[in-house]
Design brief:
Length: about 425
């Protein structure tokens, strides 16, 4: 199906196309597969290598693939059929999972490490292509509602993937778990391939010049001529410095995310030595409630009033999320612990919707590069966060590691909020 497929008529001015819900469910299924294979392959690497270095090596290579995928995705979504690009990335991940599952025991580690780049890179490119295409699929005025729906489905799938990974691996084994993962990507590829929604703006619809951004003083006109050059990311940052600021915050936020993900098992063993898994499960389930609640708040309190989440919502959501994650590690009583977990999920979901909606306000030819830049920043932050946080936990308490890691994005987000407010006044 060509990239400029016939647009399905919208149901109403404020509702999403019905077929978009099919895409959201397909994306949720592939997200479930991603979380399931992340856990399964991490355990697979640990058992095959016989030590924790096997898991660390796999995760680092996978994050490197995500970094590379983010860097090249801007050019790919600008020059390639986005529908086929998303389909190809899903099929590549499915094929890689099948190869790992069928690899003989002596070749497992070399094969896994070789294909870790495929897992990380294909996931990053597919995510950038999907986010870039959403305004064309549903209409620019509905992109916040679409992002809210996608974030909710994705969050539920993430929690389900993490919660069921251990059960699936223990019950069915690594090989069956990886084949189940592969099937989720095949379903997503089929959904995208048959989706009757346009993924790219028509040539006649491309704006000659994007309206001035209140936080973007520079002009992009000089950069469009060099759109295919290796300096494209710098051109985007020069034309839209707010994107660079958001990328920096996302990088540090990903660093904080790595810190709390690594610190949570340590914290759970310290505060619930009898059953640390129960504490972790309770935390992530409560976090999911808050994350899903963000979708309801955006839909019911903002979009119905004609308010679209933007830069300020992004900054405030980052502060709420990071602040609540710090509170989680302070040893609060159970009711307050759960309240902090809900706040962390709420801020996380609200930030995801806000920054995605804000970047999608860029012109179609710039959108992919901006999302690629953000994807690379997140992978850099997550990778360095895993390495440093894991080392610091041997010397410092989980509260100290998480507190420092999340305090930095709070400070940067507050500074960003001040700059945006002053810019709007001018």
């Amino acid at each position: 199906m060509p990239d400029t497929a016939q647009q399905v008529p919208h149901q109403s001015a404020d509702k999403l196309p019905r077929v978009f819900y099919r895409l959201a469910l397909g994306d949720a299924l592939s997200t479930y597969g991603s979380q399931l294979d992340l856990v399964a392959l991490s355990l697979f690497a640990y058992e095959a290598a016989g030590n924790a270095l096997g898991t660390a090596g796999y995760l680092i290579i996978r994050l490197t693939g995500g970094l590379v995928g983010g860097l090249v995705s801007g050019r790919l979504v600008a020059r390639t059929d986005r529908r086929r690009l998303m389909t190809g990335c899903a099929l590549a991940q499915a094929l890689a999972l099948v190869v790992v599952a069928l690899a003989p025991v002596p070749a497992r580690i070399p094969v896994l490490y070789s294909l870790a780049l495929v897992f990380g890179g294909a996931a990053a490119v597919c995510a950038v292509a999907l986010r870039t295409s959403i305004p064309e699929m549903v209409g620019s005025e509905r992109r916040a509602r679409a992002n809210s729906l996608m974030a909710s489905c994705r969050s539920a799938a993430m929690v389900l993937g993490f919660a069921s990974a251990g059960v699936v691996v223990a019950w069915a084994g690594f090989r069956a778990a990886l084949l189940i993962d592969a099937s989720s990507f095949l379903v997503f590829a089929a959904v995208v391939l048959r989706l009757p929604l346009r993924t790219r703006a028509e040539p006649a619809e491309q704006p000659a010049a994007e309206p001035a951004d209140p936080a973007d003083p520079a002009d992009f006109a000089g950069g469009t001529k060099r759109r295919g050059s290796r300096w494209q990311a710098l051109i985007v940052l020069r034309a839209a410095p707010v994107v660079g600021a958001m990328a920096a915050i996302r990088l540090l936020d990903a660093f904080g995310s790595a810190a709390h993900n690594i610190s949570l098992p340590v914290f759970a063993n310290q505060h619930s030595p009898g059953n640390p898994a129960a504490l972790l499960g309770m935390f992530w389930a409560t976090w999911a409630v808050g994350n899903l609640g963000a979708q309801q708040l955006v839909s019911r309190l903002l979009l119905r009033r004609g308010i679209e989440p933007g830069e300020r919502a992004f900054a405030l959501g980052t502060c709420l999320m990071s602040g609540c994650f710090i509170l989680v590690f302070t040893g609060l009583p159970t009711p307050l612990f759960l309240l902090a977990a809900i706040g962390a999920g709420l801020g996380d979901g609200f930030t995801e919707i806000s920054y995605t909606t804000r970047i999608q306000a860029l012109a179609d030819e710039r959108r992919g590069q901006a999302f690629g830049l953000l994807a690379s920043a997140e992978n850099v932050g997550m990778g360095t966060g895993m390495l440093l946080s894991g080392s610091l936990l041997a010397l410092l308490s989980p509260l100290t590691v998480v507190g420092v890691s999340h305090a930095v994005p709070i400070v940067l987000a507050l500074g960003f909020l001040v700059v945006v407010a002053r810019s709007r006044k001018r």
